[in-house]
Amino acid sequence: MGESSLSSIAITDNLGTCFIGQRVIYYPKLTSTMDVAKHEAQQGAIEGTVVIAEEQTAGRGRIKRAWLSPKGSIALSIILYPDLGYLSSLIMVASLGVVHCIEKVTGLKSRIKWPNDVLINDKKVCGILIESEVKGNRVDYAIIGIGINVNLRPSDFPEISSVATSLSHELGRDIPRLDMIRCLLAEIERLYLALPSGDSVYQEWRDNLVTLGKKVQISSDETTYEGIAESVASNGSLLLRHSDGSLTKIVTGDVTLRD
Ligand code: BTN
User: Fold this and answer.
1) Which helix (H) or strand (E) holds 34?
2) Nearest CA to ligand 1 atom 11
3) Edge-to-edge strands of the sheet including 50-56?
4) pTM above 0.90, yes or no
5) CA of 203 to the centre of ligand 1 (A)
6) pLDDT tens-digit profile of 161-209?
7) Could you give the residue ranges of the DSSP H alpha helices within 172-223?
8) CB 106 within 8 Å of CB 171
9) Whose CA is nearest to atom 2 of ligand 1?
10) Distance of CA 118 to CAs 99, 113, 195, 209, Å?
11) Are 191 and 93 in contact (CB under 8 A)?
12) Cβ–Cβ under 8 Å, residues 38 and 21
């Protein structure tokens, strides 16, 4: 795994974005990029500030899970100040941004498992965590955290090897993380800026979901639901059709595909 280290300047240099990634705070090692991004956001960091770490020692995932991010992976957080109406679309922007940039940089096709896991050949290659602070009808800040398994061997990590993959494992060679990061920041900015112009981001996200039409089990708020994932609404919630014909709207949860 002979890839050189990242740096703020290498990421920002001629990036071509308006604001995402114009300021990058880089750490060789950090507990979690979410913690630093939150602190920065609370201090009023400019929109689009990125916090990135070569390695996280306490990376976190959704539902209070730990997130493994050894050297060779990508772990970054992006600070945004969206209008409240766009908050629920950030999962779509982030997951689609990852799908696009994986394809552009590696040629690999990936799909999204609702709400925002990115899978290749049914195994997880990227996890996304969105944390925000809302006061009244105003978003104080929103942070998109993205972890991508890039240049690592899943078999070196037995705790995740049955459910996870990496780009290098799928492609059979290492991938320049710098290209992935720069592409990702540009792609996320493009999708984020497209939100006010209509439904295109939602429609593309929906079309890239591997979950729809499948029999699923969903854990949400300590309840487990089973049924067919029938559709998703434009606010990101999932409609689950049960065997008795009834429907449940699920806002957030953890999906297991049953077939
Ligand atoms: C999940 O799949 O549960 C979400 C994983 C999110 C991981 C990323 S890595 C960068 C950022 N920092 C963290 O501690 N978590 C997110």
Assistant:
1) helix 33-42
2) 145
3) 24-30, 50-56, 74-80, 138-148, 123-135, 117-120, 111-113
4) yes
5) 25
6) 999 999 999 999 999 999 999 999 999 999 999 999 987 999 999 999 9
7) 177-194, 200-207
8) yes
9) 127
10) 7, 6, 21, 9
11) yes
12) no
In angstroms, how far is the first alpha carbon of the chain from the final one? 35
Is residue 40 within 8 Å of 33, Cβ to Cβ?
no
Residue of 31, 129, 219 to test ligand 1 pocket, by largest number of atoms within 8 Å of CB: 129
CB 45 less than 6 A from any atom of ligand 1: no
Task: Tell me, in angstroms, the distance from the centre of ligand 1 to residue 146's CA.
Answer: 5
Q: How far is the CA of 139 from the centre of ligand 1 (A)?
A: 21
Q: What is the mean pLDDT of residues 150-160?
A: 93
Calculate how far, in angstroms, residue 60's C-alpha sits from the geometric centre of ligand 1. 5
Q: How far apart are CA 214 and CA 208, in angstroms?
A: 13
CA dist 138 → 59, 82, 135, 209, 248 (Å): 28, 9, 5, 29, 28
Q: What's the rounded Cα separation, in Å, for the pair 133 and 111?
A: 29
